[in-house]
What we know:
The protein is α+β, with helices and mostly antiparallel strands and about 900 residues long. It is built from 26 helices and 14 strands. It folds into six domains: about 130 residues; about 230 residues, no CATH class; about 70 residues; about 80 residues, SH3 type barrels, CATH 2.30.30.60; about 80 residues, Alpha-Beta Plaits, CATH 3.30.70; about 55 residues, no CATH class. Helix 2 runs antiparallel to helix 3 and helix 12 packs antiparallel against helix 13. It is extended and about 145 Å long. The N and C termini lie far apart (about 105 Å). About 20% of the residues are buried. The N terminus and C terminus are likely disordered. Belongs to the MscS (TC 1.A.23) family.
Amino acid sequence: MIQISFAFRRRVGRLLAALVLCGALAAGIAAPSAFAQTAAPAAEAAADFKTKLPQWQNALERAANRIAGGDLANTEYETLRADLAKIQHEVREAGAAAAAARDTAQRMLDALGPPPAQGAPPEEAGIAAERKRLTQTIGEAEGRTKQTELIVTRADILLRTAADQRMTQLTEQIVRRGPVPLLPATWAALPEQTAYVQERIARAFGIVMGDDEWRGRLYGLGALAAILFLVAWPVRRVLLRRYGHRDLEDRPSYRQRVVAMAVEALARCLVPLVPTLVLSGALVGLLRDAADAGPLTALVVGVSGGLTAYFLVTGVARATLAPDHPSWQLANLDPDSARRLVRRVPLVMIGLALAGTGIALSEGMFTPPELRSITGFGTMALIAVSLLFLYPDHLWLAAPPPEAEATDDCGCPETTPGTGLDVTLPPPAATPAAAEAEDMPPARPRVVGLRLRLLIGAVALASLVAAGSGYLVGAIYASKLMLTTLIIGGVLLVARGVLRELLCVLLERGSGQVAEVRDIVIATDRGRRMLGQAGRTVIDGLLLTVAAFFLLPLTGMTLSEMKGLADGFLSGVTVGGVRIAPGDIMSALMVLGVVVAVTRFIQRQLDERILGRVNMDDGVRNSIRMGVGYLGTTMAVLMSVGTLGLDLSSLAMIASALSVGIGFGLQNVVSNFISGLIMLVERPVKVGDWVVVNGLEGTVRRISVRATEIQTFQRASVIIPNSEFISKSVVNWTLKDKTTRIEIKVRITYDTDARQVYAMLLKIGYGHAQVLRNPEPVVMFRDFLPSGPEFELRCFVANTEHIIPVRNELRMRILEQFREQGIQMPFDQQTVHMPKVEAMLEVLLAERRAQAGGVPELQVVADSGKVVPLADTLSDRGPRTAT
């Protein structure tokens, strides 16, 4: 044993103490420098916050004072909302920075450990100072966080107050009563006010037309509009001639009519609209810088709006109703009604365009109240009279539906599964009721759109009455909302049909690059149906968003309010500490769908381009494909959960709390899931195997997470839980290979030459082409049975799929050869002895003999086949055979 001296131990202890002291000094020197580097950005952020805090507070005070003053104009309201939104954005960024600084300081404080307990030795001075500084930093960051929350809350309150105040102002304007146009006092001030308006218009025209520069600009804009029109007109003619309504021998399909309607609407609407919008937009931009040009600007806006509505409505009406080619019509109106309606629509739109121009002029020129009341009443009357032209029922007679066309829920012609061909339904069979109906007078045509026309008429009449009673603002508000809703709704309905048809074309296309891309992403019919349903939902959602974008401003909502509403909807609400955000949900669903689609694409490409070219077992290929699918699905779920922003630690706590209940409630599901994974790894059963489980026999078609699908030989699909394959005995005929033995049992009579039968069966086995020579066929003498000896022919085939046809053919050959050689196959016989019945028959026979003088009357068939007296059989007590 080695002895260590005390002096040596003391020297070693001094050396270790020196090393520990050096390390502590190095840490004390390095720590302040690291803390100083970390503390520098936090100090800058705190200083910047102190600088901006008074600015934010002053801005909020100014906004509060302006809101308290009331009477916010639209421009003031938009500016106020923009300023408050900017403040909220800056404050939220400052709050996030303060929260990050607080968390960083807290982690550093946690790294220092808990402070010394009372009575314990004090910690090193540098560590204590740093602990104090970090505690102060955490307090300051917490204070900044609370101040930012306060400012954000106050700005939100101001925004809501301003919105409520503006809505109150709009409501007061709508219900405020102005001059009554039918009173003489209102008409008395008309000449003076008309002269004032004429003077303003003349001054505006004089300023614009009296300047050579302005005249040059107007001439240039006119030339630009003419060039655009000359370029667009030939395009319009080509589109209408090649793809529009034209004469055909047969009725065009629904798809052809939709395409023609889209082309007609595009040519008749957009071609004249483009020059109009370009010219009006350029004019409004130029007149914005001109002094006293407000009346001219209002005139340009009103005329351009009226022309836009006119071209849109007339073009869409003519494209949808197809008055010159009734077979191309999509609205299912009677051809005569469609022609009359198309002739009246331009007249109605001229009246509505003039009315809209009058409203725009009265609002844009700040017309005096009396003049505005009279012109407003006139515009309301013009609107009511114009709509009255569309009210008669003979304009809205429905056409009888065509018998040879049927449409599905997406608006596409009904197709046969997997073909994409139109289905022509046969005419219904003639019935006595149908024959009787043919003899009856024709039914009155059905009138469509009655309720909608009544509603429109009621709104127009109410607006006219309101304008005549002095409530002009309310009348204009109702009329603008109604007409804009009708125009936007009609255009979007047409766009909905076109977009849905384009989606159907994409999903049903049989060849081309579009079809190749679609098949790469989604190859199954079920996936295409799901994609079609999702696409139709997205189309409807987008069109509703477009409708809201055009209609919500008419209710008094500004663009900033619409943006705030959309942001609030997408950001969601917090319920019980959990934030439910539709935007995050839609993003998560999108991520889930994209990752799953990419996974399916990788599976298909892996199966077709890599595994398909390798000499690999089908079961291995299926295991690899399913493993890639499970991995991709897991990644998709995790990525979607991450997109939702869920706290996985909270989910883990909840899962651990519910694990016992889940374990008992879902133990079968979990057992099947684990069994499915084991089956994919160990592969005791593969896709394509011939198995027998629980008395069910068939071929494995699919192995999923929970269950396995087996197709029986009767073509029935049986779903078996995966745990059945792991916990119970399973017969797999094709686990190692597909070589299978066929066994055919044959029974002969005892008087037949056994060796002849042996040679005959062996020859039949060797004579079949699909019977393997290695292992070779074998004939076995199995047993001596009561009815005869039994032989068994054993043959091997290379594939289990050949078992049934080979077995059938061998049996046919055995039967044919036995018949040729006169070899009989006995059937099972059984001898039945009935002593009691025989005793009863003896008594009965004795009675009959006594009655008949000793002559027996009962006769039976003996074993030899002869008819003998019953007494002879009873006296012999020989066995009677019953077959």
